[in-house]
Structure formats: C-alpha cells, structure tokens
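Hi V.,

You were right to ask for the full record rather than a summary. Here it is.
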Amino acid sequence: MKRVLGSIRRADERYGMIEDGDKVCVGVSGGKDSLLLMRAMKLYQRFAYAKFDVCAIMLDLGLKFQDTEPIYRLAEEIDIPFEVIRTDIGKVVFEYRQERSPCALCAKLRRGALNNAAKDRGCNKVALGHNREDVLETLFMSMLYEGRMNTFAPVTYLSRSDVTVIRPLIFLPEKYALSMARQLELPVLPPNCEIAGNTKRDEAKRLLEHLCKITPDAKEKILHALVNTEKYGLWDRMRTKE
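Predicted structure:
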C-alpha cells in the first residue's frame, strides 16, 4: 500500500486535492481502482495534513445483477459509510435512447447522478479512481476521435452541482492497482456493461500497449509531458515569424 499512498500524497500535494473540513465521497464502480481508492482514502486520513471525512457511493445502473454484499462488508471492515443507489441509467442508454456509441451518454448520466448524490449527503468533493493509464487513454481518445488535445483534470470544480471532482490515483500505474487488489483480496465485481471490452477506450488501451512495445517507458514519458506544462511546445505558445 506504500506505493498507493505515496501516489495519493503526490497528487494531493501537487494539485491541492484535499483541504481541512472536506467531506469526500468515493465513487465506487465495483472495479479494482475504485475499491482500492476507497480503502486507500481511509488509510490516507491517518497521514494527510488535512483533516477530512470520507464516505462511498455506488450506482446500480439497472443492468445486470451485482452482488454488492462483499463491498458492504469491506466498507464495514474499514469503517466507511457506504450505500448503493438504484438508477435507471442502463435502461435510458440501451433501451430508451438505443445509443450506438453509449459510453459518452452513460458516463454523463453516471457523473450527474453521483455528484448529486454526494451533494445530497453533505459532500463537497467526489473522488474517482482513475489511474495513470486512464489519463493517457483519455488523451489518446481525445486526439484520435475528437481531434483535440485533452484529458480529464486532476481537480475540477463543477458549478452546476457545486462539488469538486478529484482523482487521487492519477500517478498510480495500473499494474500496481491490479497487484494491490489481488493482494488485499478486494471484492472486485465483473463488468456489468454489455459492450465491455469493445469500446473506444479499449482501442486506446491497445494502442498504448503497442507503443510500449516500441518504447518501453512510453507511459512514463507521456505522463511527464502532461505534468511538465512549462515546457509545452504547442502552436498556441509559439511565435510565428512575419
């Protein structure tokens, strides 16, 4: 867990994620990253400079049945308030709207539902379990499918819901998250989405892995390029000669 907590501290100190008096809601999907974040945030309470409270919420999308009892037991074991909120997001995306590319709409609805639920429970921050690879895959997806240079921010204030979204695991390599999930025997749930494994994100993941075969430390270098903003050399920072 030392590597995980070190990654959280690095992100927290660099981007000012957690402040005194915060109430942080961890968004739990049932995957390895969010469960690891839930456990890690409870431990981080002991070491963080700021004093904060933490709880966890999971959205039931109304797709396949998921046995969440093991997650309830984990939450009770580490003393984190946890609840599952039932939604019709799955029906909206796959039945009512019948989206051909449902990921964007699903993500938007999930974000809205989670942020509103967190706000209703007195939370001012929502913590998501995106790891280093998620950052890089989102960058590739933005470039390849949207024609722009973009990825999600470490800290984002959302004025509409009046909550701040933080991503404490952005510096943690996915392999460490997977290793810790196995070591801690976290109750990871299988994907409940009908198109899991066949999304644009999966394509970006495969592309990133291919780059690593050519340049083994490609992930570290791309992330460093994102963090090292003072050395950006994009066109908006270049002076053109007359």
